[in-house]
Recover the amino acids of this structure.
């Protein structure tokens, strides 16, 4: 009797109707949350607590493309254009969440909308380094020592929620007035942990 109930429950889960609901009302939101983490530094998502967010975004995605979904699910369209049916369906489920999430993240970073919404970056550290601008930097350590160098394309900075660390690709000597003199011979950069940093100055 128990085995029979188990078979029924498995078949019920794998039924076409429930699979379609899962694909349209969970997968887009799941993809969106994961992709958002790649665009904006954020805490690791606990999907046991973010289930409603995933479903909510999936509903928005479904609402935006409802007219398309309604049209392609007409029997005559499915029979006449099976390739386009599956291509459009997969695009709505897997591709449009990426596009919508990217578009939303770009809007939130603009000056116009930034005045009305909380900045997506959790800390100023992330706000600055997310711009990926190359610059000259002088890092003042808590012991008073200053490290100057070039923060370029090969440099890197950690993002929230990881502990703050910065890698400067090219170290330069500084004079008494903290002016850049020349690159230190044979240097391959320096990694500095946030715990030892007092301040960072940026120069164009």
């Amino acid at each position: 009797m128990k085995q029979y109930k188990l078979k029924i429950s498995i078949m019920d889960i794998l039924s076409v109707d429930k699979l379609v609901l899962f694909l349209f009302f969970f997968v887009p939101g799941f993809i969106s949350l994961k992709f958002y983490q790649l665009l904006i530094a954020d805490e690791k998502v606990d999907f046991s607590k973010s289930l409603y967010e995933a479903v909510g975004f999936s509903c928005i995605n479904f609402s935006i493309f409802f007219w398309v979904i309604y049209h392609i699910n007409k029997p005559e369209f499915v029979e006449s254009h099976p390739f386009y049916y599956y291509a459009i369906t997969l695009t709505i489920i897997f591709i449009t969440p990426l596009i919508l999430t990217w578009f939303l993240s770009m809007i939130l970073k603009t000056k116009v909308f930034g005045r009305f919404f909380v900045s997506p970056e959790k800390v100023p550290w992330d706000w600055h380094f997310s711009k990926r601008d190359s610059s000259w930097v002088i890092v003042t350590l808590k012991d008073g020592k200053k490290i100057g160098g070039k923060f370029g394309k090969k440099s890197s900075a950690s993002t929230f929620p990881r502990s703050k660390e910065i890698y400067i690709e090219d170290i330069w000597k500084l004079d008494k007035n903290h002016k850049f003199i020349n690159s230190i011979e044979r240097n391959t950069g320096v990694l500095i942990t946030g715990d030892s940093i007092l301040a960072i100055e940026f120069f164009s």
Q: What stands out?
A: Confidence is low (pLDDT under 50) at residues 1-8. The first helix runs from residue 2 to 13. The radius of gyration is 25 Å.
